[in-house]
């Protein structure tokens, strides 16, 4: 019994250590042409993978452990305990690396597309942590938006920063 506890403690400490070393890879794909929205979170692939997809106009997430489906659940909007401004205050706690956004878009007219292009350029000038690549199409025959984004999140450092912020108050 003593050895089982030691082994479980070793595994738990190894997982805690790995949260600081191996980041969670987050990717997002939003496509209005295909009415598609996908988000993947991968940590120590194939150890843990979470996929978020739209199902009957509601987001649903599926959790996989070692490529085996563990469970699937719809994300239903319920009572929000914290308002959005309080949640946004935790943005500075996120420890992100290699963040990027790739946007391909065309709106109904060239003027709207150029305004959107200008907004992307303004946002890019204010951030140095996110690389923004855009491909505006000024003469497309239909309106569309395709956004591909990704980042690497350090879970251990993020959790440490959130705990520090909670105890600082």
Q: What's the number of helices?
A: 4
How much of the sequence lies in strands comes to 35-45%
* Unreliable stretches covering 5 or more consecutive residues: none
The helix-and-strand class reads alpha+beta
Return the string of H and E elements. HEEEEEHEHEEH
- Rounded mean pLDDT is 87
**What separation lies between the terminal Cα atoms?**
42 Å
Largest sheet, spatial ordering of strands: 5-4-3-2-1-8-6-7
**What gyration radius follows from the Cα positions, in whole Å?**
20 Å
**What level of helicity do the residues show?**
25-40%
Give the overall shape.
Answer: globular
Please provide the count of β strands: 8
The main pleated sheet reads as: 8 strands, mixed
In short:
By secondary structure, this protein is of the alpha+beta class.
